[in-house]
Amino acid sequence: MHDETIQIRWHGRGGQGAITAARIFGQAAFDSSYSGVVMAPSFGTERRGAPVEVSLKISRTKINDLCPIENPDVVVVLDDSILRDADVTAGIKPGGIVVINTPGGRSVCRAMNVRVATADVTHLAEKAGLKRGIVNTGIIGALVKALPIMPLSVLLEAIKTEFGIKRADANVKAARLSHDHTTME
Question: What's the average model confidence in pLDDT over 100-111?
C-alpha cells in the first residue's frame, strides 16, 4: 500500500474537524516525502452535526485523479454514531483499515476482511484539555498508529503548525494520547 496512492475516506459530523484532520494529515504526509496530496471535502447543508465526508489521497508521485474515493484503503470515523446512519465501509478494499473513535472496540464495526483500530478519542481529547466533541487531532493520532506511513513526530509538528503556539499543546496531547491508546484488532 505504501508505494501506490493511499486513499483515505473520512466520515464525521460538522464541527468535529474532519476537514481540518484530513488537511493536517495530508500536510504531515507531504512533509514525509509524499509529494502527491489531494483533499476533497463533501458535505450537504453546512451546519453543526450534519454528516461530512472527506476524500484524501496521498502518493509519492503526482496525483491526477481528483474524483471522490469509492474504494478506500482506509476509512476514518470521527463519531461512532455515524455507523448507525451509514455504511461507512462501503467499497473498502479487502485488508483495508477502519479507524474508529469509539469506547466500544472492534465489535462496533461489522465489516469483514478489514483491520480495525479503535480508541476512545472523545474521552482522550477531553483529558488532553480540548472541548467535548473536538476529536480531529486525536483521531489522526490514532490513524498514524493504524497506518504507520510517517513518524508520530512529523504529525505532531504539523499539528503545531496548524494551531500555533496558543492552541497546539492540548491538540498535540490529544494526538499523542490517542496514538498511545489505539487498539488494533
Answer: 90
